[in-house]
Amino acid sequence: MPHRRSFRLPVAALIAAAALVLTAAGAAAEKPPTPIDDSALNPTSDRFHGVGPNIGARTIQFWTGQATNPVNSATYTYRMVGADPASNDAATIGVDIVPIDLNVGGMAFNASDVIPAVLASPLFQTGNYSSTTAASTKTGGQGSGGELSAGGVDVQYLDAIMRSQFNKVGSDYHLYLSPEVRRAVNLTVPAAVGMTLVSSRLITYAAIDETWFQPIVEGWTASLHYLQPHRLALFITDDVLLYSPASGCCVFGAHGTADTTAEGNGSDGRQSLQTFAWASWMTAGFYKPSTSWVKQDINGLSHEIAEWAADPFMNNFVQPWSATGYGCSDILETGDPVVGQGFTQGSTSFDQNIYSDGHYHPQDEVFLPWFMRTSPNDVSQPTQSDPSVGRYTFLGDLNGIWRFRQPPPSC
After folding, report:
1. CA distance 185 to 39
2. Is the dihedral of CA 22, 27, 33, 37 positive or negative?
3. How far is CA 125 from each of CA 153, 275, 346, 347, rounded to the nearest angstrom?
4. Cβ distance 124 to 362 under 8 Å?
5. pLDDT tens per residue, range 353-384
6. Residues above pLDDT 90, as percent of the chain
7. Would you list the domain boundaries of the chain?
């Protein structure tokens, strides 16, 4: 895929610049991308609206569990996608992939171009997770790999995460994703809410106002009538990030739930809830490799898919925890605490440049016992170094950040 290239700007100036983009169509097409400094690039995810299911609701297959937090003695109820791991059953969830082809400032950002690489990625293809060739350092650069999830073979990324989280590697429990690609939707972004940015490494991305983009995506959950509540709607963009006065730049993905009952999908009288996620394919090199090496290709997509599976309705509440870029949160967001931590899996020749390494880069994920302050962790797959201790993230010992070797403090 040809790279959009042609990039120093603090976050406040970035948002102001978006409002100053020339409004004339011809002038907008000629406006060069705006340079942005690495210090202004703060990779984060976000949450769109969530809705809890009523009894009998038409929605994604899910199971309900409970866990007691020994720190505050509270018992938390949570819902996750698929079959209960205790049942040792397998579940397959259909995924409607909706590419979004955008025009921003006269420049095309077509997700249709990246769909073959997404389909060939660990998100939908099975692989061997027993080891990895590289993992993030504690400062976000590329580090050495090693043993990952012993016995985790012939599984998709999400399946590997869930089986390790509940120590079900080698069992009949699985959570499979089955994709179907839909026709691309086309979107021209008005000059007042979109601009192009180029990093100091000459990689160009689009930046769009989140308050404009979010309701459009949520509206598609109802207007695209082929979407069904028992399937995940996955909206994909290519090298597109969101900004807002609250979060600055740059949001790479989000997930949520839309109540589509009123639009006819619940014509049998039951509530209809459509779970969905949006994330962007990311060309390597927009983010600084020495601090955000893993932020490339499917990293944002893996983040959102894993969080969707862990909290499909956005209402799994936990004792508050904190993470850089997110402040204090009481939501079970399994990817947010470990943004910037990930590993290599599989191989690809797509969208390669001098910052690429020929692999896909899914994200590490935090496990339920970390949020529940379960210590010792007797729920998850053991760590690589101690078979008597469960890990708190999928990377286990390969995650070099010490606070993920133990439950978090409250905030």
Report:
1. 33
2. negative
3. 12, 22, 9, 11
4. no
5. 999 999 999 999 999 999 999 999 999 999 99
6. 77
7. 11-133+145-319
Instruction: Specify the residue for token string 């589509």.
Output: 260
Q: Tell me, what's the pLDDT at 262?
A: 64
Identify which has the larger pLDDT, 45 or 178. 178
Q: Tell me the residue length of the chain.
A: 411
User: Which residue carries 């791991």 as its tokens?
Assistant: 85
CA 49 – CA 385 distance, rounded (Å): 40
- Cis peptide leading into 376, omega within 30 of 0? yes
Region 315-332 average pLDDT? 89
- 44 vs 248: CA distance, rounded Å: 10
Q: Dihedral sign for Cα 94, 97, 98, 104, please.
A: positive
d(CA 375, CA 27): 60
Please tell me the pTM assigned to this model: 0.89
* The two structure tokens encoding residue 333: 């967001």
- Residue linked to tokens 């929605």: 59
Reading the block at residue 228, the tokens are 């069904």
Q: What is the 3-state secondary structure (H, E, C) of the chain?
A: CCCCCCCCCCHHHHHHHHHCCCCCHHHHHHCCCEECCHHHCCCEEEECCCCCCCCCCECCCEEEEEEECCCCCCEEEEEEECCCHHHCCEEEEEEEEEEEEEEECCEEEEHHHCHHHHHCCCCCCCECCCEEEEEECCCCCEEEEEECCCCCCCECHHHHHHHHHCCCCCCCCEEEEEEEECCCEEEEECHHHEEEEECCCCCEEEEEEHHHHHHHHHHHHHHCCCCCCCCEEEEEEECEEEEECCCEEEEEEEEEEEECHHHCCCCCCCCEEEEEEEEEEECCCCCCHHHHCCCCECHHHHHHHHHHHHCCCCCCEEEEEEECCCEEEEECCCCHHHCCCEECECCCCCCCCCCCCCCECCECCECHHHHCCCCCCCCCCECCCCCCCECCECCHHHCCCHHHHCCCCCC
Using only the alpha carbons of the chain, give its radius of gyration. 20
pLDDT in tens, 28-38: 345 677 766 65
Give me the residues paired with residue 92 across strands.
176
Is the dihedral angle over the CA atoms 75, 396, 338, 111 positive or is it negative?
Answer: negative
